[in-house]
Design a protein that fits this description.
This protein is an all-alpha fold and 131 residues long. It contains eight helices and no strands. It starts with 7 loop residues before the first helix and ends with a helix. The model has no long low-confidence stretch (mean pLDDT 82). Keywords: Membrane, Transmembrane, Transmembrane helix.
Length: 131
């Protein structure tokens, strides 16, 4: 039995692969990297918020190199996971969302754009007001 696609990341993959189809084809490499970026930004948002509660900027300077390595490892793991999950699934998702009305396509397209921009807002705000 085939499972129904999840809306959030599956739809982002579908729409971005559709937008970059001439570059990537059905594999959707650009969309996979975009999904990984969104996931990493959510993880970084949570980590920065937790660190902001317990530490000041000066206290975190010693841990800066460890944090970079941790982020790179997590990003690589997410990239592998997303590649295995989404690589070549464009046709299945296109079949599922092929009968979408124009209004829903525009509305969901705006949600995709917002989902690419929104994870940056907490980082910017915390960076501006963290003393």
């Amino acid at each position: 039995m085939e499972t129904k696609p999840k809306f959030f990341f599956d739809y982002i993959y579908y729409r971005m692969t559709k937008a970059y189809f001439k570059w990537d084809g059905r594999t959707g490499g650009t969309a996979i990297v975009a999904i990984m970026m969104i996931q990493m930004l959510y993880i970084i948002d949570v980590l920065v918020f937790i660190l902001r509660v317990f530490y000041t900027r000066n206290q975190l300077k010693d841990f800066n190199n460890y944090g970079k390595g941790f982020i790179i490892i997590i990003a690589f793991i997410l990239l592998i996971y997303n590649y295995r999950k989404y690589n070549g699934s464009y046709n299945k998702l296109r079949y599922y969302w092929k009968d979408e009305s124009r209004t829903m396509r525009v509305y969901k397209g705006l949600l995709v754009i917002v989902s690419l921009i929104l994870p940056w807002a907490p980082l910017i705000l915390m960076g501006m007001f963290w003393k």
